[in-house]
Amino acid sequence: MNLLVDADACPVVRIIEKVAKEYGIKVILFVDTSHRMESDYSEVVTVSKGMDAVDFAVIQRGKKGDLVVTQDYGVAAMALGKGLLALHQSGKQYTNENIDQMMFERHLAKKARRSSSHYHGKGPKKRTKEDDEHFEIALRRLLEENKKSQLHQ
Questions:
Q1: Residues 50-95: pLDDT tens digits?
Q2: Do 43 and 58 meet the contact criterion of CB atoms below 8 Å apart?
Q3: Fewest CB atoms less than 10 Å from the CB: which of 3, 22, 49, 91?
Q4: Cα radius of gyration (the chain)
């Protein structure tokens, strides 16, 4: 298993690297050329700046059983379709059971934004220490489940 991270503006990269080191798992961080990222642990893949360039690079590189960390529902949907695991930076796991609903809600929100010049969404709330803890717990749970399933194969 590898951890593939849609790392443009990802607030949990350091948590991912810390946990991955403990489990001995390779981390690959994907960024576009408008971001500069260095890591002592992870492989950093820089792709050309372009719409969805990072997204497609993540999916292209992923192999069945890898874990993708992304806040993008579209990337998560593609990951699930390819047999990858997918985790939001909030700690919510994307699954085949919840991705359709999440995509539909995203569609409705986008439609509302387009239809009203007066629509002003709140935007994301400020990230808290509890958010980071929740993500780390979810990441460890997924890695433990993967470790157990590997032992039973």
A1: 888 999 999 999 999 999 999 888 899 999 999 999 999 999 999 8
A2: no
A3: 22
A4: 16
What single DSSP character describes residue 9? T
The label of the residue with tokens 């979810």 reads 138
Q: In the structure encoding, which two tokens stand for residue 100, read together?
A: 């359709």
Q: Give, in words, the CATH class of 2-118+125-151.
A: alpha beta
- Per DSSP, 124 falls in state P
* Domain positions in the chain: 2-118+125-151
Judge whether 46 and 63 are in contact, CB under 8 Å.
no
CA–CA distances in Å: residue 120 to residues 36, 107, 111, 126: 31, 16, 13, 17
- CB of 75 within 8 A of CB of 5? no
Report pLDDT digits (tens) over 104-129: 675 566 777 677 766 566 666 788 99
Long-range CB pairs of 63-66, under 8 A, 24+ apart, other chains included: 63/2, 65/1, 65/146, 66/1, 66/2, 66/3, 66/4
* Strand, helix or coil for residue 1: coil
Torsion, CA 127, CA 2, CA 144, CA 99, rounded to 10: 60
